[in-house]
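Sequence and structure are kept together here, with a separate record for every protein. An example record follows, reproduced without changes.
>
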Amino acid sequence: MKGIILAGGSGTRLNPLTISMSKQLLPVYDKPMIYYPISVLLLAGIKDILIISTPSDLPHYKKLLGNGSSLGVNFSYVEQPSPDGLAQAFILGEEFIGNDDVCLILGDNIFYSEGLTELLKKAVYNAEIEKKATVFGHHVDNPSSFGVVNFDENGSILEFEEKPIKAKSNYAIVGLYFYPRSVVDVAKTVKPSKRGELEITSVNNIFLDRSEICLELMGRGFAWLDTGTFEGLLQASNFIKTVEDLQSLKIACLEEIAFKMGYIDSSQLKYLASKIKNKKYSNYLLKLV
């Protein structure tokens, strides 16, 4: 399975912070925002990752991440000339996806839970073995700001709806999606919405019509943080700091995850630690060895 991180868009809700910097490069406490979605893909066992961003921002991602070899993974890059909807990622990434299944994660979504890894493994199994998509729902107070899932009287999925004026459900679909390879062909059939975008909601409804989609609800104990606003960005930073301080463990530490997943060995971890000038961060990595 391969992974795609959508890190485009103009981030206008975060102006003036994002006038000269991509939103997904902003700090969330002690790491760049994009480290968090990368960590989710690594935990899912995904080593081939495509970063999609604007032509002006891609050089900054390449400087930050390189080709991924230092972490034992592979980073590729594709330009998104204009933000034409989430489903556009599969069309732009068609060559990268090839004959593999794919996970799409939004670059400004942060997930945290003790049970996250098991949930990811289940979604990978659904795509690779069952050939079904998997999406995730999270209870929210403002469902009209998100794509939501509606249920029938038996609790089965009735439809997916994009930012409804009067929402029939409080379960938002979060920015993490697993699909079989057929998603590329599905995305090509999607017509632009009234917003002029290729909606991921349309993709999900096609898989629903085929009875080829699974919904996993993130209940108590799952944290989903959307960092697209000032409040969300601050809340995410405070959350990460609080958890790291309480547990003395880092969240989304790519070097640690790569080491524990077996992508790199102890000598490579020591080398990476030596390249980091932040003593607290480098000492944390050395303690892992």
In short: The chain has a mean pLDDT of 94. The longest strand covers residues 171-179. The chain has eleven helices and 13 strands. The CA atoms of residues 132 and 210 lie 10 Å apart.
